[in-house]
Amino acid sequence: MIMYRGDVDSKPFLPEHAVERAMVAIRRRQTRRALAQRTPAGQGQAVSPAVTELLDAVEAETAAGRDVTVTDLTRLLAIDQPRASKLTGAAVSAGLLRRRADQQDGRRSTLKLTADGTGHLDAVHRYRQVQFAAAMDGWTDPERAVFADLLTRFVAALEASDNAMRTSAS
Q1: Where are the extended beta strands (E) located within the chain?
Q2: Tens digit of pLDDT for each residue in 119-166?
Q3: How far apart are CA 78 and CA 50, in angstroms?
Q4: In the structure, what pLDDT confidence band is assigned to residue 168 with cuts at 50, 70 and 90?
């Protein structure tokens, strides 16, 4: 289905164009850490956005039933080993994360959220959800549900494509 802009030249404007523009805008907001910069005190402001991002990754991997190491974080966050180690050290020092010896390989340490780390992420999740709800203010409940479903499916398809490319490249 081709959609057209309302301008005089009526160039074809596909939905993919709108999605690409929106994704670029989201990436720019993420790069600026716009949401994290607006986090009020008591909602994770004392913890750097980079450490919160690391905790998000540990939480997601743990929820998927996977152990997480510092090496895994380099891939998940697209950062180098020294940066992953530094961020992990900061999270451990802040009491948000703990290292645990791997039972199968004593040379390896897995990372687990502490109760404080889980509490921090709970507060961050609540804050983000309030911001997203505000952005959808005026939307009907069915519109919110459809948006959530489509966005979730879209992100899952992007992840599946990335995983397929990684698998074929190795």
Answers
A1: 3-4, 12-13, 97-101, 109-113
A2: 999 999 999 999 999 999 999 999 999 999 999 999 999 989 988 887
A3: 12
A4: confident
The residue behind tokens 């074809």 is 12
Give the pLDDT confidence score for residue 139 in this predicted structure.
97
Return d(Cα 55, Cα 91) in angstroms, integer.
8
Which residue carries 């005190």 as its tokens? 41
Task: Name the residue with tokens 């152990």.
Answer: 67
| φ, ψ (nearest 5 deg) of residue 141 | -60, -45
How is residue 20 written in tokens? Answer: 């690409």
10 φψ region: left (φ > 0), alpha (ψ -120 to 50), beta (else): left
Instruction: Report yes or no on whether pTM surpasses 0.90.
Output: no
Helix, strand or coil for residue 71? helix
pLDDT band at residue 54, thresholds of 50, 70 and 90? Answer: very high
Q: Which two tokens stand for residue 31?
A: 């790069």
